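> example.struct
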């Protein structure tokens, strides 16, 4: 299949045309998640440039220093039915960060608003407050963005594996992997690591950045392939899914259970000391 045909399929995608009809779904929400500074915002820039065939621009405020990480969940519309979401990155993955990451990924927090890190039951309150603002009709495809410049220790590998499998359990979709800094020599080791974790779809890009903004055929081609694969995944999932509202309730239950269990553990520890 050539690039123009892939572009046509991406542009024309609609849940209405899926075998079982739309089942309550309207848009694909590409939920980008991953550690701080791994290239989520840069990948959004690259995707916008590739899709709209435009010159480089820092649409998603990718950081040029370590001092301005993304702290909002911001959405970027690619087509009527495909939206990219730049989520707040994570770094230390303690039980509070994990809860926040699940809530973002499960689309339980509002789009286009700041994301705080709450202690105690604060996150549960925010999820309840967000109910009128989040859409069950958004179908989540999780996209794990990882920079191959980072060689993980065995402890860190276990953490990444945990994040990967929780994202799968929460959304019901095996996360699609986007590896950034693809020209780095670690590329095949990191790619194999994700295959071992059970990843089925792995893409590797050299993002457009402030330092390297020149348009490249290779980057555009990989991104169009990636978007086409996203469409195929959504079509495949739509053959099995049943009810958009039920899916949302399942995700909410998953995250609220997590918060509840976490707080019980903390209380037990506090009682002991
Ligand atoms: N060489 C190269 N640099 C990259 C690539 N992707 C991102 N960068 C650089 O890495 C730094 C971090 O990129 P961001 O896109 O801001 O990372 P992020 O994941 O959005 O970070 P947070 O918002 O903190 O979670 C920036 O200086 C980018 O220019 C890539 O593929 N190649
Ligand atoms: Mg960012």
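> example.seq
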């Amino acid at each position: 299949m050539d690039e123009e045909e892939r572009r046509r399929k991406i542009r024309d995608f609609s849940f209405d045309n899926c075998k079982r009809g739309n089942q309550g779904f309207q848009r694909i929400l590409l939920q980008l998640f991953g550690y701080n500074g791994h290239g989520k915002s840069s990948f959004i820039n690259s995707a916008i440039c590739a899709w709209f065939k435009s010159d480089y621009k820092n649409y998603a405020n990718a950081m040029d220093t370590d001092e301005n990480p993304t702290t909002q969940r911001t959405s970027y519309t690619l087509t009527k039915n495909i939206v990219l979401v730049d989520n707040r990155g994570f770094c230390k993955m303690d039980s509070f960060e994990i809860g926040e990451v699940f809530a973002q990924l499960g689309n339980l927090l509002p789009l286009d608003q700041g994301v705080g890190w709450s202690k105690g039951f604060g996150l549960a309150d925010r999820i309840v407050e967000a109910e009128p603002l989040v859409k069950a009709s958004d179908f989540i495809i999780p996209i794990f963005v990882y920079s191959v410049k980072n060689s993980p220790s065995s402890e860190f590998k276990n953490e990444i594996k945990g994040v990967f499998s929780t994202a799968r359990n929460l959304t019901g979709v095996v996360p699609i992997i986007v590896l950034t800094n693809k020209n780095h020599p670690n590329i095949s080791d990191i790619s194999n690591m994700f295959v071992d974790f059970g990843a089925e779809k792995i893409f590797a890009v050299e993002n457009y950045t402030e330092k390297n903004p020149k348009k490249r055929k290779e980057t555009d081609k990989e991104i169009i392939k990636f978007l086409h694969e996203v469409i195929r995944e959504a079509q495949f999932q739509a053959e099995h899914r049943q009810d958009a509202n039920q899916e949302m309730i399942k995700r909410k239950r998953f995250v609220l259970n997590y918060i509840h269990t976490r707080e019980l553990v903390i209380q037990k520890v506090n009682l002991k000391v």
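> remarks
The two ends are 63 Å apart (CA to CA).
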